[in-house]
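Troubleshooting: if your tokenizer reports a length mismatch, compare your output against this known-good record of 351 residues.
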Amino acid sequence: MQTQTSVRREPLNLRAGDLVEVLSQEEIFATLDENGEYESLQFMPEMLQYCGQRLRVYKSAHKTCDTLTRTGIRKMDNAVHLEGVRCDGGGHGGCQAACMVYWKTAWLRKVADGEPASTATAPEDARLLPLITLNARGPRFDDGAERYRCHATELLRSAPEVLPLLRFSQFVTDVRTGNATVGWTVRAVGAGMFNRFQGLSAKVLPKWARLRGGRHWGYLKGRAVGKTPDVRKGLEPGDLVRVLSAKEIEPTLNENLLNRGMGFDAEMARHCGRTARIARRIDHIVDENTGRMIHMKSPCLVLEGVICEGAFNASCPRAITPYWREAWLEKIEEGGSGATNPRIPAQRAAE
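Known-good structure output:
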């Protein structure tokens, strides 16, 4: 492939709520290298549909949680998440993970509220779609299966630097960009410090001397004996459900807080007792570690408006949609006494 020389653009100092316009295909192509990337971040096929559209910044993506190697929070430069923009999986085999998309500010133009749209439209660049489609794939697996590349699988390259919890400048940026309030940030830092203490105590103290058994914030404890249960309740998209209490959920989890390989953590426990509708069922997603499409033997559910808010994870703005086992939910009949107070969408709780 002929080497593509990318055009460098000055970074934008964007805040949550800013109005931006996604650049044209031609302008975006000019920023990409031969790998279809800018600063090691792919421009994915799913992003193409937004060229020329105006959207608001959801949050600054100056940091992100590492779901690959579990190193904690990692630093990312010159990137944001846009409101309502999640990957639809169209360029990645129909992956249903619906991850928030990362946008380099080099692909955006800041516009003022009320500013009229430009009447001039740049021609579509016929080279962009083939480039980004090619680079959404890696070498096939030995069995011939597709190997996918996306923002999630390539996270360690686009965010190579680990952010220590005690680098407090990250939290200043959270507040300055409008990602989080001061109170929210203080709580996130406190939870992080507590978890670090618990981790250290588990290494140096006998079990009887550890605070709450050395468990992290949320104090969840898996209580399942032997194989974790496979519970099917016939729940469907559109059903109104209540998240069970932590006490009811713990017997479905093993000591690693897993139910047949799927985790339940303190971020999810924050939603215990709340109600929401089932948005969709998940049965196939791209494995972030390998790039292989995996088909779940036991499909899981996603709830409307329920996201990971980063409350106990250094205010991570990634807004991952948790996956729920049916064992953790109970259906509420419409008009019943349990459906009087459907919960506020989770993403608004951090505002």
